[in-house]
Amino acid sequence: MNINLAGKTALITGSTSGMGFAAARALAASGVTTILHGRTDAHVTAARQKLVQELPKAEVRGVAADFGDRDATDRLIAKEPRVDILVTSAGPTDSRPFFEISDEEWEQFFRIYVMSTVRLSRQYAKHMMARGWGRLIFNAHVLSGYMSGEMVHWGVCKAGLLGLSRGLAENLAGSGVTANAFVPGPTHTEESFKRRAKLPEGKSFADVETEIFEGPLQHSILKRFIHPSEVANLVVFLASEQASAITGAVMRVDGGSIRFPV
Q1: Measured between alpha carbons, how far is 68 from 93 in angstroms, rounded to an integer?
Q2: Which of 17, 56, 92, 159 could cross-link with 145 by S-S, CB 3.0 to 4.6 Å?
Q3: Chain segment 199-246, per-residue pLDDT in tens
Q4: Residue 240 · residue 207 · CB < 8 Å
């Protein structure tokens, strides 16, 4: 399948590293004018330099905004008022017991994950509808709403994105604009591997990966970490003309990690 998205512009939030950067790279390679996003100018500049070095012919620009600050979303929109493709992948992870998470921290997570996506979608979807084409693509998680207790606030926000993508799809019915969520499974990003394991002395990454998939992640069919580029392939497909009949969907790229339907 040859996917060519030349002439389209995409904003990928949380795209200075990990899955967000992989999605930005894959979209740029497909001809998309790519807008990188991160919390700070320094992170955005470094990511842009890296992407341009990898893809010298790509048209890449960047914008910094910390979504923990409500006004930051408005400032981002003022700088980039129109895009054809919105991919949201921004947000921190945090592992703590439920009873230690304050109201303020709940509100901060909700602001970063859900409300920033609401505001960006509200802005960009109007222009997409006017042009009769657009893509809203949200990074949820294969365990959205089913996280263990130490990440319940993260799981709740990710579950919110599932509901938002479906609701938006129904609001955009017949407009030529699609809205979908993608749900990655255990993915080997810089941040996620730091959380899962620190390499013990004398053990390689392959050793630790084998132990993890023979232990806590033994339910995985793939039996290895997913590479960010494998997640990015799904993002590019959902952004393409070939995915024009897919909307209101939850698309899994989880390595068969779970048995129940999402």
Answers
A1: 13
A2: 159
A3: 566 677 777 777 777 777 777 887 888 899 999 999 999 999 999 999
A4: no
Say if residue 168 is exposed, middle or buried (CB neighbours under 10 Å; 0-12, 13-18, 19+).
buried
CB neighbour list of residue 135: distance below 8 Å, 6 or more residues apart: 84, 85, 86, 128, 177, 178, 179, 180, 238, 239
Tokens representing 242 are 């070939």
Mean pLDDT, contiguous 10-residue spans, the chain (262 residues): 93 95 97 97 98 97 95 96 97 84 94 96 97 97 55 88 97 98 81 55 72 76 86 97 97 80 54
- Please name the helix (run of DSSP H) or strand (run of DSSP E) that holds residue 43, with its range, or none: helix 41-54
Question: Structural domains in the chain?
Answer: 9-187+227-253 (3.40.50.720), 190-225 (no CATH)
Q: Which two tokens stand for residue 46?
A: 């470094």
Length of the chain as a residue count: 262
